From TrEMBL:
UniProt record similarity statement: Belongs to the TAF13 family.
Keyword Protein biosynthesis: yes
Signal peptide from the UniProt entry: none
Domain of life from the UniProt record: Eukaryota
Gene3D superfamilies: Histone, subunit A
Organism: Microdochium bolleyi
An example Gene Ontology CC term for this record: transcription factor TFIID complex
InterPro entries with a match to the protein in the record: Histone-fold, TFIID_TAF13
Protein name listed in UniProt: Transcription initiation factor TFIID subunit 13
SUPFAM superfamilies membership: Histone-fold
Pfam families registered for this protein in UniProt: TFIID-18kDa
Length: 169
């Protein structure tokens, strides 16, 4: 099936958010608030281009005997346009780099948490010296002795809050 025949069902309907298309046009030098007709035409052009690329990629996957699309299929579809192909490859490389860095960061974060947990167990509380200095002037007894007003002025609230207030008085 030809991609243009498939695109006919979406003609006149907006595929993308008009604000996003307007921002895209503004980024490429159009006025800040483009005409609705301009946004509609740009939406149709972008939609048709994406449908064409996806159709070519799906056809390549089908010829290769696969049902799922791979990056190679999109490379094949964009092989005649080196600018698009370079941008797509750059985007994929960046995404792989970000995923690799996230994985490294998460592993480092887990390792640090485990080390802190071990230090807390084996150190006997000696590892939190900076926290102890920050909490020196605060006392839990003062907070319990002077209950703060919780709830509305009408005296509403849960029974638990009322019991806590009664117990503190």
């Amino acid at each position: 099936m030809e991609p243009r025949a498939r695109a006919g069902k979406n003609v006149g309907k907006e595929t993308f958010n008009p604000k996003e298309i307007g921002n895209l046009l503004f980024a490429y030098g159009d006025v800040e608030k483009p005409l609705p007709e301009t946004v509609r035409v740009a939406d149709e052009i972008v939609t048709e281009f994406l449908e064409g690329v996806c159709f070519e990629a799906s056809r390549h996957a089908q010829v290769a005997g696969r049902q799922k699309l791979k990056f190679d299929d999109f490379e094949f579809a964009l092989r005649h346009s080196p600018a698009y192909l370079g941008k797509v490859r750059n985007m994929i490389d960046k995404r792989q780099h970000i995923n690799k860095m996230r994985k490294t960061f998460n592993q480092d974060d887990d390792t640090l948490a485990k080390e802190a947990e071990r230090a807390g167990k084996s150190g006997g509380g000696g590892g939190g010296g900076a926290d102890d200095e920050l909490l020196e002037g605060l006392s839990d007894e003062e907070d319990i002795a002077k209950p703060s007003v919780v709830g509305s002025m009408k005296g509403g609230g849960s029974k638990k809050k009322k019991r806590k207030r009664e117990g503190a008085d």
